[in-house]
Amino acid sequence: MRARLLTRRSLIGTLGLSALGLLAASRAHGVISPGPGFDPASPAAAAKGIPDHPPRRSPSRAGTLFVGAPDADPAAVALARELHRFLAGRLPDRTVEWGATGDAAPTVIISTTAPAAPGAGYERQRLTQLFAPVTNWRLPLNFIGSGDLAKIYAGHLIDWSVLGSPIAGPIERLDLLSANAPLPPGVTPPIAPVATFPDYESLVAGLEAHPGGIALVPLGAIDFRVQALAVDGNDPLAGRADLAAYPLQRELWLSWDGALGQGVRAALTAFAAGADDGAPFASDIGGGGASRSGSPVNLTVAGDIIFGRTVHSRMVRYGDWAHPMRGVAPRLRTADLTIADLECSLSDNTAKPADPLTFYFTTNAAAVAGLTLAGIDGVSLANNHSMNFGKLGLLDTIDTLGGAGITHFGGGANLAEARRPGMFEVKGIKIAFLGYDGISADEYGAGADWAGTCPLDGQFVVEDIAAARAAGADLVVPFFHWSEEYVAVPSRYMRRMAHLAIDNGAGLVLGSHPHWVQGTEWYRGAPILYSLGNFVFDQEWSLETKQGMFAEIVLRRDTRGGTRAVRPVRVRLVPVLIEDYNRPRILDLEEGLPVLQRVHDATDEIRTMG
């Protein structure tokens, strides 16, 4: 739960970079078409194709700021275009213009080569641009070695099965033209790409047409529609990397006229260093700690957990209240934030049914030890088992969770509490979870003055998302309990409700209840995971009910255009198999393939529904 990531200060020390450059890796997203170049300012610079420094100029009108990229490198131009939009949103007292050939040199430039020593009053800063290899989202592979990557680009590795993928298929090099990505070290000469794409959106479509494709993409461009591979164990997309040893990076340079003033300097610092609160340079890197608002958040979400019935009897037999979670706890604990659906009461005041086929789920309060062992930070109570033992069972559960430091949502002592979001702040990002019971709310739904679950009602969804946004949430995540049981394809009603949530501001939609994994959908820039399936359950009577998955999701703040939006940039599904009626085991790539294939088949069917 809260994995320890490298701080900006420690990374700067590792790389020997100064404070502005490090987190700019996520900025250059390579989706902007190349713009015009600029005439160099001096003969010495002309020989290099760049100016010695941004020449001091008298703007054509007061308050005008010019931004550009003089050497027309696609990646430099892309980053400069982004900087242009960013400054336009951050500096309302200035007119920010894109410089053009024939115009005087821009006041702020981004270039691929270090300018000569700047003149008096001028400043320059090195930026480090990181790239990651991306593949089709369905490729069952999470990492690659730099040596193997070099062999791919040299044409010596031609099939994914050689790299451990349980699916064989030809490897095809694809290129993103606007990225101008560095080649893996030691590749001379490289093989020609099978296809090239002008921007990221066309590359995503290209990976559908070339399912064995691989391309090198700037970190800031990557989203959940592709699979970004870790390299040599370094995963910069998730903030887990030794960047000093990371092979896929290149330098860019930011240069500006210091006479522009502290306001412009602070904006440039925010752009380069990921200080999304716009903090001045000194406070961003000085004192006791650096701003971490640009750091990714690693979120893990699991499906349905019951500690009752046979799971309860197994915990009693083994004398271990955390037994069901011991196999998965080490993996779940690596997340910054872990959420699940809890489908039973945790109470010492409820009778424990002896019937192994009962549909009333309860266990001792001590079973909360399994949740804490796994680092679970919050649970949804919006389901058809939270109220199996009435108000007593629900309120005891809430007290038990609170005593263990676990937040609940989707259920409460009254409707207001049941509708209240579970709010979490991680690395400066505020995430709100809302729980909705679409199965048993007619029987168990909370009211103005009685306990229960939060009913799945479209008006509640719209109002609650708006309220969470107004309370400062950067990302709102509804967690729906819905669907017929034992089906892989969501109903049209479920899709309408998920779309309604996203149309009204949700950035991620989760689902559970059918006891099977279901398909996924990407809608208006947000992922929908219709069902994660069982996670801790005792339905041993079928393979599908023994199989489930959890999702590892990476969230990043998207500052393109000066915004503060938080978006998922990775959704990785991790299959599990429940054994001995209680204990999930994480499956390797080959074992987990049938689970993922069912998800993909259902996803394809969703696409045909329109």
Give keywords.
alpha/beta, D-Maltodextrin-Binding Protein, domain 2, Purple Acid Phosphatase, chain A, domain 2, 9-stranded mixed beta sheet, 17 helices, disordered N terminus
Put the structure in a nutshell.
The chain is α/β, with parallel strands linked by helices and 610 residues long. Helices cover 26% and strands 25% of the residues. It starts with 7 loop residues before the first helix and ends with a helix.
Q: At the first level of CATH, what is the class of the largest domain? A: Alpha Beta
Radius of gyration: 26 Å
Give a short account of the largest sheet.
9 strands, mixed
Shape label: globular
Helix content: 25-40%
**End-to-end distance:** 38 Å
Strand content: 25-35%
Summarize model confidence as the mean pLDDT: 85
Question: Which structural class should the secondary elements be placed in?
Answer: alpha/beta
